[in-house]
Structures are given as C-alpha cells and as structure tokens.
Amino acid sequence: MYRQIFKKLEVQAKAKLSGKVINHAELSKIEFNNTKIKEAFNQPYRHYTDKNWLVSHLNTIIPKSEYLGKRPDYKDTHDVKWIHVFKFFINNEASYILIREYENGKKVFHSFSDSENVTIGTKK
Q1: In DSSP terms, which residues pair with 27 in a beta bridge?
Q2: Which of 25, 45, 104, 112 would suit a FRET pair with 93, their CA atoms being 20 to 30 Å apart?
C-alpha cells in the first residue's frame, strides 16, 4: 500500500518540480530534474514517510530553509564545484537539503540527508 502511495507522490513531484527553477534569498536558480527527484524518494532516511511527502513541496521548503553555506564535493564528482547545504526540520529533528553547483554555474537539487556530517567543511 505505501509503495503505491509513494509512487503516486513521486509522479506528482516530478510533474510539479521537474524543469522548474526556484530561488532562495542566498542562492538563486536552483533547478530540479526527474533523476534527482526519483533518487530523493529512494533515499534512506530516519523519517522516510515524512521525507517522501516533503519531496513534492521542495519548492516551498527550500526558500524557507536556513542556508548553512557551501562546501567542496568530497566525493570529487566530475564537474561539481560546490555542495550547498540547507537546514530544515522534520519532526523537530534537523535535516539537510543538498544542492550541487557545477563548474558551469548550474545549481541542481541533489538529495536529502539526516546526517549532520554533510555540514562538515561548510562555510558561508
């Protein structure tokens, strides 16, 4: 049953966000694509059900989230210049949104995390 609900949420999130661009006061032109939206639904997470519901609301969550800054991409992914980190709360627990900034300046939603480790090395 949950699988069907999550699949429906994923389809709705893709329709709502894919190809869209949003802005945060400290980071503009954040893009979304189907691949990263799908990955967000499959991401392991402490509050898995809540996280899956929130994916389709990223366009309103990111602008209200706290921008913690940027850090290098420790995975050394090709063409990724920075990882931008945003903090928000799910069930009163800190959670993080990661945005990749590529060498060409393009910024794309990458993933969620419930680990504070993603903030290591982050600077404004």
Answers
A1: 24
A2: 25
How many helices (H) and strands (E) are present in the chain, helices listed first?
4, 6
Please state, in angstroms and rounded to a whole number, the distance separating the CA atoms of residues 72 and 31: 19
Does residue 34 form part of some domain?
yes
**Which residue segment(s) compose the domain that 20 sits in?**
2-119
**Total structural domains within the chain:** 1
Question: Hey, how many other C-beta atoms are within 10 angstroms of the C-beta on 49?
Answer: 12
* Cα angle for residues 30, 124, 83 (degrees, 5° grid): 45
Burial class (CB in 10 A: 0-12, 13-18, 19+), 84: buried
Q: Quick one: DSSP state of residue 123?
A: B
Which band of pLDDT confidence, cut at 50, 70 and 90, is reported for residue 24?
Answer: very high
Q: Is residue 59 part of a domain?
A: yes
